[in-house]
Fold this protein.
Amino acid sequence: MPRYLVERTFEEVFALPLGVETAAACAAIVATNARDEVTWIHSYVSTDGQRLFCVYDAPSPEAVRHAARANHLPVARVTEVRVLDPYGYTAVFAGRTNKAR
Amino acid sequence: MATRLEDVYHLVIMLLEREEAIQGITALLDATESRGSFAIVSGEAGIGKTALVRFVAANAQRLHIEVLQGSCDALATPRPLGPLLDIAAERGGEVRETLITARRRHELFTAALELFRGKDRRLVVLEDLNWADDATLDIVRFVGRRIESMHTLLIGTYRDEEVDERHPVRLLIGDLSTGGAVRRFPLAPLSAGAVAQMARHQDVDAEALYSRTGGNPFFVTEVLAAGDANVPLAVRDAVLARAGRLSPSGRAVLDAAAIVPHRIEPELLAALAPESEVGLEEGQRRGMLVADGVHVRFRHELARRAVESDLTPARLVALHRRVIAWLRDQQPPAFDVSRLAHHALAANDMAAVLQFAPAAALHASALGAHREAARHLTAAVHASESRLEPREQAELIEQCATQCMLTGDHREALPLEARALRMWGDLDNRIRQGEAQRKVAHILVHAGQGREARAAADRAIRILESAPEGPELARALATRAQLAMRAGEANQVRHYGLRALELGERFHDERTVVDALINLGTHELEYGADDETGWRLRDAILRARNAGFEEPLARALVNLATAHMLRREYARAGPELASALAYSEERGLEAAEKWLRAYLARLALETGDLDGAATMASALLRGTSTHESRAMALVVLGTARARRGDPGVWEAIDEATALARSLGETQFIVPAAAAGLEAAVLLGTRLDQEVSTAQDALALACSHDARWFLGEPAVWLQRAGRLPAGAVDLAMDPWHLELAGHSRRAAAAWTQIGCRYEAAMCTAWATSAPDAARRDALEDLRRLGARQAVQVMARRLRDEGIRAVPRGERRTTLANPASLTDREIDVLRLLGEGLSNAEIAAHLFVSPKTVDHHVSAVLAKLSVRNRGSAAAEARRLGLIGADAKAREQFAER
């Protein structure tokens, strides 16, 4: 499944509540994503809390957007990415099919 | 349900690691109070799907929920509607009769629906769908689409090792999964611990048991039941070890039961094995056979296969022949022509195959089980070599080709029909030869080879013209007219269409008349004058309805809608697409349905709903679809992705282009080329390549006088600066206006039609437009979500020296309860700081009129009367912050 990086920019500071609510909030997001076969890998938050970079495995960019909307999250830019890991010798350009998803 | 101790023991153990599935399915069963669902239980053979399902069924019965159970036969060619007929028989009533005698798909579907839907809650179980015939699968698809509105839980099981990606069951699940009422329950093998627990009372090496059996419950059970300390290597050996302990009469009964798939009547058993009662009793006692009063069967299909595989070929043939003899003497339902055909094939009795297979095919075809009909006929064709007269054989071969076509298997159909064509030629039967040639053309269209199809249709006409005139010639002409319509060959459509119409009327061939009317009517609506009403198409619709022609009616409804789409008359097209879709869904016309969904995606794209377009196209591409709908959906998806700047643009467009090329029709080639060029301009790659493709497409459209298709590639070529001279006098408005340089009028026309993206692009691109208008257009593009288009146009405006073009991303709010657009929030923020409309306009570099417009919208959305309240409300909702930094609207990148 392809991997996508989603960039989001927020007006106010993005803050996930830390505590018991976090687990429930994350579980809810994961469950909603699963309906579109989207898997949230992890996210990076800028230190000013206004930019979010989220990594997903998903069947298509449309699935990512659909799941995002269901979770009430905006989507700015979607880019397809591959993992480049200097410590493993992961194949960066593994074979791809030609069919669109 | 079996109540023997051994079975109960196994039931309890095998359900040990099935809590999740049981809980899930039980929850769905409970939920049938309010909505129905379709639960799919899958797993390898012997994993315990049946045990699970029986457990759930027993629970349901305890709750007084009606339970209906059917399973599909492992016949090489299953009985059409097998499991449904079984359920209907069990239930009683008239449904079974209706299922057998129904002549129209609609009747069939409506009757079958009664098995699934009732006032009270119901559980319907269909096992082993991997062996289901096409008619059953069609009905399951039909029911699956409507299951949510019923108080029914439908459980379907299948073996996943028998089912690859292209298997009809997988495609069925794919089609239904987009609906949301489908839940999947894949079953995993037992863990080592569970196996150890099962084996704890026996002297057997639990580790070896686990590793040899892989945790397969059936295999484990067989090994334990054999009571041997050694664990055999395969299930087959375990079963045969058990069978080996039977007495000769027991084994004879087992062998006899093994060659009749699914289950066997006791009377047939008696005919095949001496002392069958004694043997049966022993088989039951040993736990290998189960008798439910009406039939006898193996406890598991794997066991049956194991015993069957141990029989010598001679013994097999002898047994099958005895079955045939017995079946021949019976009345229905035992006299089932599909069963006879199956055993005839197994017995290698070619004469019997020739006798029964064609009849079995006829029966299957009438019920819509075309895959089964095709298989029967293939066996019959094989058996017919040097046993039938050429004329009879040619007939058989053509029937087989027809069935293959009905399953969409043109690869099989083409050589068959071609062979029949040769044979009719040798027999000098021009009429049949011409018909066969026309069918070849039909197959070629479905194979996506437009050019070859047109050539074949031309040949058919020539052949039939050399024979006395008749309805066959009319049909060939109508086919040619349709091919001309698809290819956009304007003159040819009228030429062949009118001839077909005249001949069809003369020979009273209503079907041909309707087909000809549809082709002519579609063409006239697409290329006629502005006041063209499509009267011929409406006439066709009326006549098709009266004559009860389902597929032509669907085609007419579809063409009416798509013709209005071509003319960009969305007010008409929208409702027409919806009603055509409703009709197609109701009648289970899959191909038409997919085509219409592709068009709905296109409608969304053309009216500026990028999100809707991408979502719909993506959903369509996930399931099965025809080449045509796929080609269209891929163009929509590729374009939406390009406009948004999402990945996967070229994958979609390249596949669309390849499909279009093999389809060989203007209506696919040109949009794909235009989309490719737009993507190249927006993404800044492959420009030369796409320009070349677009120029070729433009030439193609011109040569076919396909005026509705000229505009798009021409406009993009002009924007890329590579428009060939004199190419565009034929283009329709509003493209024509833009090509001639009247951008303001073109944009106004686009806006009036409802094409927001085209309107905005037109203005943004036009150097003659005022700067403010171009910036507004950019804002429109942003509001449409066309990020990549915004980026490209913003750069262009800056390069032209226009000031104050926004850079970078808009910030968005996490919560936007009042659904204000980005722009409206900008206005609101400045308003909150006390600026007047004029000041806001200056700050945002838009006209004061635009700001007035935004302020009104804001007031309306916030439900307030004045600016002061608006600001207060916005602060209360957290839409604007007191932070002075909020002045800075745009982020640097």
User: Anything to note?
Assistant: Residues 36 and 66 of chain A are 7 Å apart (CA to CA).
